UniProtKB/TrEMBL annotation:
Cellular localisation: Endomembrane system
Taxonomy, superkingdom: Bacteria
Pfam families tied to this protein: DUF1232
Membrane-topology descriptor: Multi-pass membrane protein
InterPro entries xref list: DUF1232
Organismal lineage: Bacteria, Bacillati, Actinomycetota, Actinomycetes, Propionibacteriales
Transmembrane segments: 32-53
UniProt name for this protein: DUF1232 domain-containing protein
DUF1232 domain segment(s): 10-43
Length: 65
């Protein structure tokens, strides 16, 4: 049961580290663009984590609509 949460937790942890890290694709000193790339990475990570959590086979949610 814990294995189900390892992948999504890892995705969110890496995104959080990227968000606070001073090393970015676009530095945060480039004000609007630097913050937007951080927000995009975090939003994508949240979306991926939700997708991983809801699309697991054998999660006991088959047949529930």
């Amino acid at each position: 049961m814990i294995k189900k949460y390892v992948g999504p937790a890892l995705v969110l942890a890496v995104a959080a580290i990227y968000g606070v890290s001073p090393v970015d694709i676009v530095p945060d000193v480039v004000f609007p663009v630097g913050w937007v790339d951080d927000a995009a990475v975090i939003a994508a990570a949240i979306g991926l984590a939700v997708k991983l959590l809801t699309s697991r086979k054998g999660s006991g949610r088959q047949g529930i609509e």
